[in-house]
Specification:
Rossmann fold, two-stranded antiparallel sheet, about 50% helix, globular, oxidoreductase, 3-OHacyl-CoA_DH_NAD-bd, NAD(P)-bd_dom_sf, 3-hydroxyacyl-CoA dehydrogenase NAD-binding domain-containing protein
Length: about 325
Amino acid sequence: MADLGFGSVIGQWNGAWLMTRFGIVGGGLMGHGIAVALARAGHDVAVYDVDPRTLATFHSRVGQALAQCGITGAQAERISAHVTTVPALNDVAREADVIVEAVPERLEAKHRVLAQLESAAAPATPIWTNTSVLSITRVAEGMVRPRRLAGVHWWNPPYLIPLVEVAPGARTEQRVVDDACELLTAMGKTIVRLRRDVPGFVGNRLQFALLREALHLLDQGVCDPATIDTVMRSSLGLRWASVGPMENADYIGLRLTRDILRNLAPHLSTDKEDFPSIDKLLGEGHQGRSSGTGLLTWPPGREAEVRQRLDEGIRRNLTTTP
């Protein structure tokens, strides 16, 4: 079947984006959070998930998310009215102006869902994959119209964190990326547009490069996990919300930055497959929060305390970041 080009399928009126009908496949952690962010912006959202239990709790989780945003009562009811759940994937595909794929990070799962969506959706309907680590080009493999697929990576929780990373695959139509960026900008999101497809976008590559070095410090017996968290929260975490690494490199001077790198880089981790600190724990059945023990211990109450601290910290930083 011939590939089709794309015009703008999302309407504007006097420069403002009209209400857009979104379909979301996947109603879990990211799917429900994206739905809340879209509904707060006035868009209608239909959500499908293969697991009936996920759909059964969906509206209560939407209400909890709105409460985290300080939205309750009649205002919460008005926003929640924009979100519906549907019993079949085809119901999402047929009615949506934009489809969001938010299924687990497994290529075979994404390929299966995208094939179903393409068989039911109109040929020009754009699809946004919310993968955070997979190549957009590889996600698009097997699609009849890979030009309709863009990587649109929301950060968790999507209704609080403003950043959305947008990236093309090797065959993505430019208009699909343009429309995504313009629509999200109109929602008040902070958009970064990548020049090309790269696994992990920008944010996760930075995040997991740091995590790799943290695990290397554990493996080398330099410190314990709590020390790493203390260092991050009491130094870098305080600075990075205001001054990023590129600006800081210029600020301290590129000559000093280069001298530091020359001395430090040979000692940094280059591990690619083996991560003993995690592998040993996993081998012993320690999964982290879900099992009660991981790099740290998770006694009753810690999960809720961490969730509250995280949400409050994000909101606090949003009010103080320049």
